[in-house]
Amino acid sequence: MKEAWVGIDVAKDTLVIHVRPDHQQCSYANTPEGWAELLAELGSYKVQRVLLEATGGYEAGVLRYLAEAGLPVMRINPRQARAFAQAMNCQAKTDQLDAALLAHQAQVLEAPLYRPQKAQALALQELVKRRAQTVAHRDDERRRLAQAALPAVQACIRQCLDFLAQQIASLDRAIAQACRELDDERARRLSSVSGIGPVSVANLLAYLPELGQLDRRQIAALVGVAPYNADSGPKKGVRRISGGRSALRRVLYMAAWSVVRHQADFNRRYQDLLQRGKPSKVALIACLRVLLIRLNAMLRDGTPWRSEPM
User: Does position 122 have pLDDT exceeding 70, yes or no?
Assistant: First the structure.
């Protein structure tokens, strides 16, 4: 059986496939029936890697389907795919070209394999995402209320705010139930940490299933709180964080503030960094990184949370 590397350009309704090294191209519907036809076509190859890029969720179905069928599937950020195209001096962009470039990238580069999550984890992700959207809507309405002068408009906005408050409370209850169904032990351990509230616990369970399974460097890089060097010759550049899971990082940023307030050792660490001249955001990100590493170690080793001695 011939080895093959597969690139898939995903659209809402279609999947454009490119198979290397045969350079075979074909198209399928982005539906369960189309996924089954694609899987049957790939059955004649010894597939080494299948690569596709994130497309706002349109890729989720085929990604999960192929992974559950046992194929080594990878998903990358569109920015990575475009950077590879530019490195290959390919300025044009079509679905067929994109699929060919993804197949080439699958052959020469490696990325972590996609691992399907449990149905409960997917449900929790959807609830957490909807809560974040509703909170953003509420905050927008609060800003509009502050700017509104007409009493009728103010009354309308207040009614909307009351409804959104009810929706957020309902989502909080649904998220708490989903956390219990997903992994009660992990949720209980995370909830035991002073300063880590139910929203942070839900986001960690939903968006960081790798927590407790990686080493300290990997988990920091995955969330996007690992500082990267920017040196060249004698120049020593400023270390900066980059990439990672931005939605989760925003939630953990607020959690870090809470932990700094509630735990003396984190407060001491934060104050020490400020006294050394670090900006407040840099100091907080450093505390966030330590918090994440210690949470990872707690779940990995199955130990209770312990505050560091003063």
Answer: yes
Among 219, 302, 292, smallest CA distance to 252 is for 292
**Paired residues of 28 in beta bridges:** 15
What the block records as the tokens of 239 is 């270390």
Q: What is the domain partition of the chain in residue ranges?
A: 2-108, 119-193, 208-301
pLDDT tens column, 30-70: 999 999 999 999 988 999 999 999 888 899 899 999 999 99
Residue 310 scores a pLDDT above 90: no
Helix 246-262 and helix 216-223, axial crossing angle in degrees, nearest 10: 110
Considering the chain, what percentage of its residues have pLDDT values greater than 70?
98
Q: For 103-114, how does the pLDDT look when each residue is reduced to its tens digit (9 = 90+)?
A: 999 999 877 788
- CA–CA gap between residue 240 and residue 244 (Å, rounded): 12
**2-108 is classed CATH 3.30.420.40:** yes
Consecutive H or E run containing 140:
helix 119-147
Q: What number of CA atoms fall less than 13 Å from residue 278's CA on the CB side?
A: 17
Over range 161-176, report the average pLDDT: 95
Distances (CA, A) of 289 to 119, 228, 241, 295: 29, 13, 11, 10
3-state SS class at 244: coil
d(CA 109, CA 280): 38
Amino acid at 249: R
> Distance between CA 113 and CA 71 in Å, rounded?
10
